[in-house]
Amino acid sequence: MGRLYRILLMSFYLARYRWLSELFLQRESCDLMNNTSYDSWYALDTARFRSAVLAESFVKMNIDSETVEFIKQSERKSDSTILQLFHGFAISLLRLFFEKTCINGLLRRGSMFLFSAEQLY
Hints:
Layout: H1 2-14, H2 18-34, H3 52-57, H4 65-79, H5 81-94, H6 100-106, H7 117-120
Helix pairs in contact: 1-2
């Protein structure tokens, strides 16, 4: 509760300075990522499935090198202050002409990684 309160309070005070607020939230997000086990991303309680057939057919995946590389690349992009400042500036300009989803596509932001080649075969 204390961490959430701190985030909300800082967000309230930093709302006028968007870039400062973004840096603060990015820092909090990095701290959370560093304290999270990747194995927890692949954990699922199959007892909660409504269908026994689904529970039996569930195949638990594990993190592999391709997934780790995607995560590291994403962290490098996220930690690049110059890139984030450029994105902030570009979004401010492009917002006059495009929706946020289109802007993120143009800037190649928000990439998703569903399965690695190893996980599919």
